[in-house]
Amino acid sequence: xxNNPEIARALGYPYPAPSDDFxxxxxxxxxxxxxxxxxxxxxxxxxxxxxxxxxLLRKFGDDALVPVTVARLKDHDVVYSxxxxxxxxxxxxxxxxxxTRVAVSLTWLTPDQLERMHETExxxxxxxxxxxxxxEIEIGDGRPKVPVGCYLGRRGAYAPDGAPIALAxxxxxxxxxxxATQPEMLSRVHVDxxxxxxxxxWLGALIGDRDxxxxxxxxxxxxxxPIDLSSFTxx
Length: 235
Hints:
The chain is of the alpha+beta class. The protein has one domain (5-224): Hypothetical upf0131 protein ytfp. 26% of the residues lie in helices and 31% in strands. It contains six helices and 14 strands. The strands form four sheets. Strands 1, 2, 3, 4, 5, 7 and 11 form a seven-stranded antiparallel beta sheet that branches. It has a three-stranded antiparallel beta sheet with strand order 8-6-14, with no helix packed on it. A hairpin with a 2-residue loop joins strand 1 and strand 2 (28-31).
């Protein structure tokens, strides 16, 4: 284990999250209240860290109210994107995966919160935002089927061996891709692109240098496979 909080944050992605519906309110996790109205909010898939309370706190502060509900998405999986985030993780993106049923969450956002989320997701740089009308998704008894938004990786899935790699931290049934934890993935990237520099020094330098991250991302993109998410309309 590292004593460096920046390295720990990079290695900790996608961060712990409750397995049941919850409310992020006042910087805390509270039990979900059915009386909370979701119909005036925008459901957005959280396939990586956006379902984690600590990431919601970073993005929205301790004054926000964000309902988060668990869901199961059919014929998709959560895989590594072909870029490095500003905080040093290799983040997630959605990918088709026939027969897989992956655990995801929905963040139910106000229009202002969605705008803020767009700001944190590097729209037009690392992700596009798309909306799907007809996903095969189980969002809970009594909840109507609604259009669902998602952040879609622009460079495809990182595939150093020719196929996407799923996030081992994300539960899935019928998974067809190999999987790796975030520490395993960063170790693999370090071996391939670290130039014999010690791991923590290499990763710390990338976290502190946007241009260096951009150069690494360009190399990762050379080992990417495209993702067909035509069910989503980019907005």
